Amino acid sequence: MPSSQARSPPSITNLPSEIILQIFESAPDFSVVNALARTARPLNSTYVAGSPAIFHAVASRILPEFPFAEQLVDAQEAAYDASPSLSEDPQNTPSRNERLLSNARCAAVASTKFAAECKIHLFTRARGEENPAFRPSERARFKKSFYQLWTLCTIANTPSLRPSAPGYLDMRNPIELAGLDEVTTWARGYNQNKFVDFDFSDSTWDAGFDMVKEYCSWERKEKSGHKRIHIYSDEAPFGFWVFFDHTQKYLQQIEAHW
């Protein structure tokens, strides 16, 4: 006999938390993740509890820089294991997904600060009026180089890993080296300007900065036949060109090896 009481309509909030987590992890992008998290309290609770796993699942599908984010975590975990004072406290050891999420937040802050300082949106003559802002493709290039620089700095700052740092640079192709060089130049200037929200004065960065500048010195480049790439002042800010869409044409001028 059918019940006289009206049944409540099906709702995502009535699903088990494991299913809700799978829905989050299957989201096509982070805008959908954020929208779901704001929908109802049960969804937000699942999001808060599972945010590292959600980030890993979504980012690994949609972010081109994600492989380099994982390489950074590999280096961080190796550095952590090499430090007796840290590795002896497993309860306070962040998980891999927690590291990925934390690092991604730093990379996002850095890319936003880079875009703000460069004021690339003002270069409409070179970039066009339609979309002069810092674009997703450009952010991805910057974040890739940022992750690579952070990886190098982590390796160079860990005594047991430091001997492998030159080999890490040797394995980078010329475009990657150009990106490392530009991020290092920006980061050092950023630190001197004392911007808030990000600090490159930590000793973790110094050894890597020095290695990049020595490896990418013009004396070294010119000995291998590398030629200077001249960027007009109305084309890109501060001579930076590696990350912007409209200056990708200069990549073909980079020699096969430095």
From TrEMBL:
The lineage of its organism: Eukaryota, Fungi, Dikarya, Ascomycota, Pezizomycotina. Residues 84-95 have a biased composition (Polar residues). This is F-box domain-containing protein. Residues 79-98 are annotated as: Disordered. It comes from Cladonia borealis.
